[in-house]
């Protein structure tokens, strides 16, 4: 029985080390900032990056576990705001989960998913074709696979 107890203890410690190491590995991944340009649009001011605000968590459920969120305003054919969430890709906190639970709060918004990133493009001035062009240009700058999953209203 003593050997079984030792083996279970070693197995438990090994599992804890693996879990901690995987979190450190993800945290060590380089952070991606919103690009300076996206197609015809240019970044208006430096992006505001940090933790999601309470209102963002209330608006976009499932982003409370995000590692980082960046908000960036762009000028071009129309003013556009980008909000991009970097998700850790663990159970209960994935970009896909955030994308699935996102509900557009009105016209002029496009949600997209790219790898571990969930983004929302918002412009009350842009027509749907301009929103598509901007979102396509932004999406190309983030790493990961795009499922071409778009939700717009």
Q: Could you explain how this protein is built, in words?
A:
The structure is a single chain. With 153 residues, this protein is α+β, with helices and mostly antiparallel strands. It folds into two domains: 1-30; 37-152, no CATH class. It is built from four helices and eight strands. The protein has helices spanning 2-28, 54-59, 95-101, 128-139; strands at 37-38, 41-43, 48-50, 68-75, 80-86, 109-114, 117-122, 146-152. Strands 1, 2, 3, 4, 5, 6, 7 and 8 form an eight-stranded antiparallel sheet that branches. Mean pLDDT is 79; it is low at 24-29.
Short description:
With 153 residues, the protein is of the alpha+beta class. It contains four helices and eight strands, in the order αβββαββαββαβ.
Kindly, what is the distance between the CA atoms of the first and last residues, rounded to a whole number of angstroms?
62 Å
The domain tally reads: 2
How many helices? The count is 4
Q: Tell me the series of helices and strands, N- to C-terminal.
A: HEEEHEEHEEHE
Strand content: 25-35%
Helical proportion, percent range:
25-40%
Low-confidence stretches: 24-29
Q: What integer value in Å does the Rg equal?
A: 19 Å
Report the mean per-residue pLDDT as an integer: 79
What would you call the shape?
elongated
How can the largest sheet be summarized? 8 strands, antiparallel
**Structural category:** alpha+beta
Total E-strand runs? 8
List its traits:
27% strand; 4 helices; alpha+beta; 8-stranded antiparallel sheet; single chain
